[in-house]
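Good day; I would like, with your permission, to put a structural problem before you. What I wish to show you is a protein chain and, alongside it, a tokenised description of its three-dimensional fold. I would ask you to consider whether the tokens describe a fold that such a sequence might reasonably adopt. You will find the record immediately after this paragraph:
***
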Amino acid sequence: MAIEQNIELWRNKSLSDFWLTGKGLDNNKKSNGQPYAMFSHKLLGSEDMDAQAMAMTAMLGAVSRVVDIVHGKQKFSVNFSSKETRTDFAAKQIALSAEPLFNPPPGYLMPDIVDVLTGMALHEAAHAQFSKPEYYTEMPGNPFMAVIRNVVEDVYIEQLTSLYYPGYAGYFWKYRRYEFDLNPGKWSHKPSKDLMENELNLRTSDFLLVMRSTRNYVSQVARVNNVADLLKKIIYVEKPARLEKLNTRTVARRIYNELFGNLIQHDIAYSLPSSLLDYNNRGKHQAESGNTNNTNKTNIPSDLQNLIQNMRQEQLQVANMSELMEAGLDPDYPPPPPPMVVFRRPLMDEGAIERYEQARSAVQPFVIRLRNRLSWANTRQVINQFQLPSGELDEDSLYQASYSNRIFRQTEIINTRTRKLDICLLVDTSASMVYPAGKEISRVELARNLAALFVEALEPVDSIKTWVFGFNLKGAVNMYELYSPALPNKARIGVTGAEGTTPEGTAVKYAALRMMAEGRPFVQKVLIVIADGNPNPGPETKLVKEQVKRLKALGCKTISILLGDRPPEYGYENSIPWTDYNTVTTGFGRLLKKLVEDN
């Protein structure tokens, strides 16, 4: 077979040499006389997080190129795993184990490591493309049957991918060699005193190694070799259309019956594999992030992952820039479709309440100051006028006055400063918000603090209604409803994170529509945007200016609070650059006074 003929070539060749042209990789073949085989080990052990993120982002770019070629229609995003993320096929996100990178095997060069990571990503993408739905929903409870089901499915999806893309079969070979052969004792059978359990584990582990090892492993059990030959005849065919019609569940059941047909089924149901449960859970999307069985999966710190995601997103934006420009310049070029907008109420996690309390504590001194300004601007002023010819009796003057018409008083209520307001706060939650905003605080934390400042100050004022939305673009434009008159749980603001890109124009449009629809008629509307960078290039930047202009025509006031290096050039009526909480509080108070006194 053509694939088998190329095995010897793959043994001595790094397939990823062609892709490794990212900055920080191609210039590191030599470092102080050391081969760049240990480049990843030294780099990841350093304290330079930016350099780590740059190198790992380049690796993800190399892996993503191959995945896009083989499974381009699926549009998967590829990242390293952390405590917060796992492989999610519904969201088209593939999480890779960073184990080959943090613990490179002896003699592995950087391209070899990327080969292994690419094999991992291709394997997961192949599951999403070729595995039937029942593979995810009907995993058998019998652990031995589960192992057989996994092995059959893995062989099936890798063979299909190799038939459609023969040149990429070597990535699977490299991944299997790393996974099953570098540590021979990892998957080997461990003898047990229980004869039945011993036989079950021996047959299962040998079947796994015969089918997945790259070293032509041969079992000592004839039944295992016969079953493996049967599976190879069924799956190793040359016509992909024929193979796609194969029912892997039926094949797995047949293999299971052939492998354990002479053993008592009751004993199988109450026996556990000694070393194979890890194979069932290792790197699978079904495993929860807190699964204790998933101990061999190396996770990277979440702050490093956020930095990598942001760098990767910037790379994609630059790569798409020419397409966006072409779409705007060429009238015959079809414009990209507008993104879908989804309003979400994010689920509360365990740390949301604590994060909100921390934000509230950080801004507590300024809450009272801003609330006083708001209360002054929106509280009726009562003035008592004395010594009037008629009105209410002034008892303090009555006892000392001779008969006169000056013993009455009248109360006058001045409403000139009273004005109702509907205020919407729009918070950027894109990946760039992970960058620092100051000493020991990130931009996303600062935005959370500012949101807490406004909500805590605005909540007690009866004449004001408040909405808070987070926004980012990740597959769709996500509008996260964090606080509103219908959702008064302030702790939900603590859910805010940082991922995706910045669809500011779409967010302004739909936040304004939501505020107009749910707000009170004939009440002044105010939109406040907290963001740190430029909107997504192309249509989004143009849409920001269009929507701000439209809101101004409708009488809605717009305020931009500028975090980071964000330029004030998007048409907002008022801009407040961030320096400290006092500046924001004072600046907003002045704008509020002007706003209330207008007209």
